[in-house]
Write a structure and sequence with these properties.
The chain is α+β, with helices and mostly antiparallel strands. It has a single domain, classed as Peptide Deformylase (Alpha-Beta Complex), CATH 3.90.45. It is built from three helices and five strands. A five-stranded antiparallel beta sheet has the order 1-2-3-4-5. The longest helix has 18 residues. The two termini are about 25 Å apart. It binds 2-phenylethyl (2E)-3-(3,4-dihydroxyphenyl)prop-2-enoate and cobalt (II) ion (CO). 2-phenylethyl (2E)-3-(3,4-dihydroxyphenyl)prop-2-enoate binds next to strand 3 and helix 2.
Amino acid sequence: MAILKIIEFPHPNLRKVAAPVTSFDGKLERLVENMFETMYEANGIGLAATQVDIHKRLLVLDVSEEKDKPQVFVNPSTEIIEPDLSEYDEGCLSVPGFYEKISRPKKIRVGAQDCSGEKFTIDAEGILSVCIQHEIDHLDGKLFVDYLSSLKRNRIRDKLQKDQKNSS
Ligand code: QAP
Ligand code: CO
């Protein structure tokens, strides 16, 4: 297994739209394992392939308390089943150190495939719903900071760019 490098805002590759996964093979399984290892090591609850600079439509997450419920979604799609919005304080491994309240539809139905290409559907609410919506945004080149005012977003960008210069 391996820890992958997480790219950070405002890295331009975070804006790429990911392509569907078409091969369900050992290479995909190894990528998923490495994404879990990377997410757990960084104390994250969700990670999209885009964040490790791989532009394929898959994400991993684990919103459980004990960090023992890994979930993989390959080629995910969503349908809103409860359009009322609910607010959640979101962060992102690609936007380290920043948390902001973001409103999203409360309840969603998610269709996806597992690592062997098997299709499944789940309904999600609460933090699971927030996490899936946040991670699918990554696959479409979107970040939670895009929901903020440009004033806030640019402050975050400037601060992170400064940190990135200081650490390289
Ligand atoms: C997305 O985010 C999410 O700034 C996943 O210093 C967030 O795993 C879904 C993290 C909130 C639902 C609710 C962020 C770790 C992790 C940081 C994450 C940091 C260390 C963020
Ligand atoms: Co994120």
